[in-house]
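Problem 12. The chain below contains 701 residues. Write out its predicted structure in token notation.
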Amino acid sequence: MLVGDTPGYVRVQTDASSATEPSAGKAILRAIGLFIGAAGAGLLAHWIWLISRVDGQFVLAQGEWIVGHLPTAWVGAALAMVVVGGLSAATSLWRDPRLRSAIGWCVAWMGAHRGLTVVLGIVVAAGSIDIYELVYDPFEMKRGVRPWMVRQDLHGWLLLAASLMAGLGISALWPDAGRTGAALRALRRRLTAAPRRWLAFAIVVPVVLAAVMCRFALEGIAHFSDALTYLIQGRMLMAGDMVMPTPDHEDLFRHSMFFVAVDGRFFGKYPLGWPLIVGIFDHLRVGYLANATLVGFGAFLTHRLARQLTSRRAALIAALLVGLSPWLWFTGANFSSHAASMCALTGFIWLFLDALRTERYRSALGAGLFLGAGVLIRPADAAMYAFVPILVVLAQLVRRPKSWIALGPLIAAAALIGVTVYFWQNATTTGSALTSPYTLESRWDRDWDRSPLETAGRALFQWVEMNRHFPGWGIGGLTVALVGALAAARWRHPGLRLLVACNVVFMLGNSLFGFTTVWWGPRWLAPLMPLCAILGAELVDRMWGGAVAPATTSAKDGAAARGSFGAAATGQLGMAVLFGGLLVGLLVVFTGQFQRHLSMPPHLVSGDAHRTAQQMGLADAVVAMPTIGARPPLDARAGMVFMDAPFESNPIIYVRAIPNWAQHARSTWPDRKLYLLIHPPDDPGNYRITAWEAGPGAEAP
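Solution.
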């Protein structure tokens, strides 16, 4: 039955069983058009990073390096596919009663909650476009529109368009609201009937996909200076040392690696927690599994944390949102420390909340051990995250002194293990327990900017980055989490308030640091992922619950029928878009990033040069590689990633081709033969490793 037009509503149906389209064939055609549009938007999202016009042709290029050519017909076809999808989406407004009902319900809800709607509108707008870094480069300290950031924003919006069109396509394939509700109800039962199976799925998926990405697309090697430093530090630890003798000319290595020289000692700037973990995996020849394993552990810890705050079903949904996030897959595919930090902090807050609830000593002990591990991995992260819990412990000592006079010191004593090791490492490396190697590295003073304007700009930048990268299907991740927080029946849960406070302090603290966006996303914000997933899970759970119960209200109560069916229609469309986002995440984001890494390794680091040197049979050699190049493997890190510690133990020592490199290398390793990786100016795509011969201009490749 149809209800007549009423102000604030779109013409809707109240009987779920009759909420079908007149023609199933037309619905299928529209679904095909929507999937075509999603594919076109996905292709454009993949190309948008590198697409340019050179000599009247479309190419994929980074700087002067042309990665590949795009036939104009392909670009035109992708645009045409998006147009087809857009027309199909517009047709849905006319043909799909469920979509019209959902829009009407949302309009009515916004009319009834105008203040909240304004707040959400501001939040959504603030998280949609990176205004700060769009016009300002915090590293170069230059102002002006940055094309790279324009591409980033377009990428996010194209992924969102692909997810929406895929969701509408799924909805068109299931036009009967009653049958859709029954199918979602059955899936909901399966989720609660086999929780261990679904949790295992949430754990295994990121482990497998991250390992595949790292091993096959990224060659299982570190690609940026931070990661290379972690790896070399790990190899030093596996050799039984935290320091090595300072090379006579440490500039041959520094900047490609973040190492510090103090009183004849040469060492990396990072705490030993993550280098020890990655060193163990690397020693076992499975370095690509280090972070991959941790992201799976992160999905498990997210579930355990969520169980402290929400229902079993919502906790499983939170674990699935983390495990099925492309951003988590990419975090697990590199050699940075942020997945380890996420695990340590999530484990800490999970067991801390359990200690607050149960006052069990084992939970307090575990919370302290996790916090100590966090100090050894990323001490600043741990300090920011622990700030609010420390205040809570002090309050508990006043409120419940009998229990917390033992629990509080137990947490502190367990955490002190990691803190003690951290200060011992400082004393061993820098000579002072209170001096961190991190503060001695050349970028320390440049990276911090505490001015209010810059801090506010970076806070906005981080909000946009989280919206763009979590879960990874387009713009909207943090906004979804915020809506989930507003919708959550358990918003007044003290544990949830504590978790939110920890993450707010963490995000604001990171706003003081000069992070910028790069190919792996805002990796430093990985510890925020569990909170976003938990709040997002609250929204998904409510949406799912509404979707499985379409209205059967009598037509005599038209207003109630409109509201009931509108809520159900909104829930069903929301679930369809969620499933569409999952498809986009796997088929567009993951496969696109995989192909991109194969064709254009991050930071131009690949294993080609080392393989060439091995094929040449080089031994007792020093190979100088450019500090920057036009295409891989023309970067010194591409050689250093294959070196063990100490450097003299390697048959091939890779160095940076800085001015006077040959003279420095000759004086440092007089018995080794020198080689230089060069590429002809007229053919930057080619390179060769050649024996170095002294002569005018021979120093400069």
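Discussion. Residues 1-21, 551-556, 695-701 have pLDDT under 50 and may be disordered. Students who got a different answer should revisit the alignment rule from Section 12.3.
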